[in-house]
Amino acid sequence: MKIKGKKIADISVMIAGKAGDGVLFTGNVLAKILKRQGWWVSTYRDFPSNIRGEPTNYTIRASLEKIYGQADDIDVFMAFDCGAIIDHADKIVKGGIFLCDGLGLAHVAPSRIDGRTYHIFPLRKLARENFQSELYKNMIALGALSHILDLDFRVIEGIISETFLKRKGKKIVRKNIRAVRLGCQQAKKMIEQEEIHPLVEKKDSGRLLLSGNEAIAMGSLAAGCRYFAAYPICPATEIWQWLAVVLPEYNGLVIQTEDELAALNMALGASYAGARAMTSTSGPGASLMMEAFSLAGMAEIPVVVVHVQRVGPSTGMPTKTEQSDLDQWVYGSHGEFPRIVLSPGTIEECFEFTVKAFNLAEKYQCPVILLTEQDYGQNLRTVKKFDLTKVKIDRGKLLNQEELEGIKGYRRYKFTPDGISPRALPGMKNGLHMVESNEHDQNGYRDEDSENRIRMMQKRMRKLENAAKDLIPPRVWGDRESEFGIIGFGSTFGPIQEAIAQLKDRKIRAKYMQIRTLWPFPRKKVEEFLDSCKEVFVVENNFTGQLGQLIRSQVKMPIRIKNIVKYSSQAFRPQEISSQIQMAVR
Amino acid sequence: MKKDKDFHLSDPTWCAGCGIYGIFASLKKAAVALDLDPEELVLVTGIGCHGRLNNHFKAYGFHALHGRALPVAQGVKLSNPSLPVVAISGDGDAYSIGLGHFIHALRRNINITYLVVDNRLYALTQGQSSPTSHRGYVSASAPYGTKENPLDGPRLALASGGTFIARGFSGNPKQLASLIEKGMTHRGFSFIEVLSPCVTQNKVNTIQWFRENIIQIDEDPKYDPRNRTQAQGKLTHEGKIQVGLIYVDDKPSYEDLVMPDRDNPLVWNDLNPDIERFEKIMEKFQ
Fold it and tell me: How much is the average pLDDT of A269-280?
């Protein structure tokens, strides 16, 4: 919690219960209210891979400053059952407030323990008695939260109306609004003035509240993706679900495949025929895609693969976050071939990098991987509206019919100085060629001659030699003059930024390099950064320190780096990074 | 009017007497009969001896990974439905490593043609048993005899909702060409299994053996390929191998159901974002 004057400037509300309780729904409505009231919002879900019965919790954080992840503590806690308190008591800040459905317990006077206030708030009972259905417990809970956070009732009414009017009608809208009012009134009776956490007033400016998965789906549409093939898998499915609704309106196509082998092979077929094509996956699905990943490299077919990382190995923990699949895409599959692996760190970058990914795939005629994580893949954040005027579509050396007719003896895999050969599409006149999964000659026909093999291998591998100018460079944040450096990729962006601020408060200055293209590895920039640091910490959500290993293998200088890793299935909290660095440097 | 030679890129190098020669000839005949242009036809092959078809047949070619000809072919067709697409697999390709794709392609009913070249073993890898090798068949992978029961492609296709199911024989290229031609004009997924002897590896299922063991399905004057029950009966009947047009159905194709604008294939769309339209999409996230 951060305070500004007498009001709150940064707050985290955890809603907990069992799967099936409507935790996500309640949290999403709260997130939307806070966003509409002008706050920067970031949510964090900790759900089991299960539809009903297991404990689940969802944290909505709002701040006056832009935030990219969870805070260290929870300030307000709303639980649909008592069990949740036991699981999360340690995360509640002093001065925090608990509201918990007693599940039949009689109403008891609030108790204060260790500066925290505990209330039994009979959500289900109120719902049953007033609305004859426990479903209304969610809106009653929202009402109680609206009292504690002093939320704007007009905003709440507006959002409830948007949520229910079309699907359920006016009557249900009114009933839900009544439930919110009831929750608010009950909370007023029960909660003392000093327990209220009123927020600083702000105004919204048409910003968006969305997940990384949605931003990627939207980015792909902007980039001209018109063919999407995938197999259902957590936590990547939102990309598909969004495109399934929108792409048909753009004369595009979304297809559910029998498995991930088919998904990537179909995307390659579509791309070969000239569509901008994409697939998305996670965990075991990515392993199945390794086979066709290699084909994309050999046949030089542009394609974009989104991998929303989850906890592995094996089935792992399908709805939780990790960064353990970096090695898979940097080193993966059989044989050697060029590939590009991008790692967005924010929702804005999810959109921008997706557009970039399609351009890079076509320019370099190779597979491009967007490596993201469940953390910002599924959680919501506020962003400014995306700037569509910045979207430029570059189809690289794709020939049109007129250009193709001007070429004498067209060869699909022609040896060129930059290794990239002009591309014709099936159906075009004068462009007949072969696409081979075997090693092939310049026309694409199978060729096992050693001389040809050497030249073809060099042609493919040289495509990315001079790509650095087009790739997304690492970005350096924090105090550039400081001697302590932090390196990370993906979702660690938020917690590292906040850890740097915490370290600053403790008189430790640090800087941070966010690696945004994992492959081809930005060796020069990383070497410069390493050179400017006395000590370097590589922060990542995995066991073996894959980014640390990658850096060690790529930089041509003796270096000492320390890995700060976390593999608990949860994203970093800022304190976990700042305290480890503080201990190490003192 | 095109001629066979317009689709002839080079002389093939399969073993003398290989069944794939018959398929090569039939495919050319069908392309001529349909008045296709090599530059509009896409031939997607899998891994096996049949995969060499691309090297000799003049058309746009895609030699896919083992078992993956179908997903690639379906991706091509959906992006550009104006292209005739023929996918070709071997029995190992189609019924073993790529079996999942086969069943789902039948369910999906995309307007492509699928030829499965059945020589009853893995030829390119030197003669292992395949899903169509009969029980007891002695092969490089089963020196004491194959223990599994063989799989029947057309029977499986019928159970999977196939809308065009046929079986041809490489020794009868005239009939095969006619089946391919019919398949290519069928609106939906057309599946043609082709019995094709391997002269080098398979000393049991020889051309003579096939000749003796096949029976023309239309020899039965009462046979109606639109009658599912009859088709099921013929395919379940132990004995001779039924050859000919086995089953046809008029279910809508995948394209009929999903393609928003078939005359304007998505590959030729203007991809630049319509900013105003996009603003409306973003509003939903406010």
Answer: 98
